[in-house]
Queue: 2 jobs
Job 1
Amino acid sequence: MANTDNIAIKVEHISKTFRLPHEKNSSIKGALINLRKRKKGYEKQHVLKDISFEIKKGEFFGIVGRNGSGKSTLLKLLAGIYTPDSGAIHVSGKLTPFIELGVGFNPDLTGRENVFLNGALLGFTRKEMLAMYDDIVDFAEIERFMDQKLKNYSSGMQVRLAFSIAIRAKGDILLLDEVLAVGDSAFQQKCYNYFEELKEQKRTVVFVSHDMDAVRRFCNQAIYIREGSFIKKGMPVEIADIYLEDNMESTRKAKSGLDMPKTSKLSAKVIAQKDDAVEVEFTYKSNEKDDMYLGISVIKDGISIAELNTSRDTLLKSSGRARYYLDTTPFNGGLYTIGAGLFRAKNAELLSINNNKAQFIVKGSDPTKGGALKLADTWKYE
């Protein structure tokens, strides 16, 4: 029997359906008439269909999909806000949802009063909230507004305050749903720093986001959902590529108004490797009439460390191959992936990305050099 001690969340064949009403009954008479006609007055919307996956303890786990794919519904099922029509969800540990932040806020109370109200809803005593109050306000950066009524706050200020309170909760599993959607770059960086702390602490995090850079940066594993169906579980780089392709295809359909077949293909392959370099071959084929260019990215641990485009003086047409000789002497030891995209030259529109894995390994990691790139040993000691 498989060991389940390391599993934080197990989702088994869950499905969820909502009823979408077509008719509004404004009176008892109208309801009776519709009943006599035996009209349903609604249609079923199958939001999630037979979804199964596991999340290990200590994982930063991404749930990715386009709008309407069922991500937020899935998160609410994990949080216990909704119950599945079928299937089961097993959670090991205390779960803290960061969903619809500020739901317990009262707009007619001040920011200060809402801090204590929201803290009480999270299970904190007044004494505990008094001890945390200054840290909460400092993190939200709204000290001079704390005695104003919440209804006078901007949406961004409310989310910042709610997030600052919510992160004080000490759950074993955290559910994060687009908490970075509102907030300036400085606040987003604070959120990123908090995520780094969660990773260092090996906390289990379930992260729903449309920000693929954040998914690549923080997640260890991710799943992709399309129209309520499970598509794939894999590394964040793979899942982010599927998301980008889906967006690209959606944009193309919207422009044409038709369900057009894919018009461009791109693949990448490492064809040779030496101690100090790798040679990568890119094969492309397109029905586009416009000139194109190729963009590549060198990725380590889900983060792009170097990017390059083909020359704008040598634009690509139709189909062909292009090779790039990559000097690997600046790279630290580890596994690297080559990502590539084919773009239309006149407006930089993405036409295709490579789905295949083009990977290479740099051997001989130096324990004095961290990260992806080796910095020169130019230390001076006094």
Note: The first helix runs from residue 28 to 36.
Job 2
Amino acid sequence: MILNVSVPASWKELTQEQMRYALFLLASGHYEPEQIKSLCLIRWGGLHPKEHVTGGYEVEHEGSIFVIRPEQLAAFLPVMDFLTDIPDEPVRLEHIQGCRALFPADLQGLPFESWLAVENLYQGYIRTRRTDLVQSMAAVLYEKGKKPLRLTPAEAYGVFLWVAAVKRLFAQRFPSFFVSAPVDEQQQDTFTMLRKAMNTQIRALTKGDITKEKEILSLDVWRALTELDAQAEEYNELKIQYADAGKS
């Protein structure tokens, strides 16, 4: 008798219930990566552990009993490697604390002003690990409830992964604008640096015309980043042209 197990192979394939379970394990701090993968494989594969037997573990699957050897279980684990990486495509919990997400997973429709706030909070969290910054991100991305959001560790981890995956997507879609620049963090206060970066982006879009700032901040983030990426590409092309002219 052959044991056939079907499990999700990416974050995108997870149901909301499965995502919550994965986030719970990841945020708990009690499990090593291989343990997380094993637990998810067993749960999502419909395997019901019975007992430890000579040579392996006895499990029930769809009414039949199988014995799985440790090396067999280990051979399945690479399928679950996605659990310990940033999602390839943005995913998110549809509801946290009873409050629904205000925007699609790719954040289309999010005002540029709100994205700047989320970006600053995200970068601040990366540098300080202050959990209140994740709470503030959630307050932008989810509807407001009757009480302030008080995220569980799993929900907070979910918000972090959502924004991290969006940033990965933006870097792929707008490569000219999202170019990593070395920053001496020893010499610059984090939030001062982030404020300067935000102001630079706004100035680039308004072209110095402060009367356009309100209009720019209300743009869909995708529209704003498309324009910034185009400007960055034009600037890069001009640098190449001037460099070539200088050599001639």
Note: The CA atoms of residues 46 and 140 lie 37 Å apart.
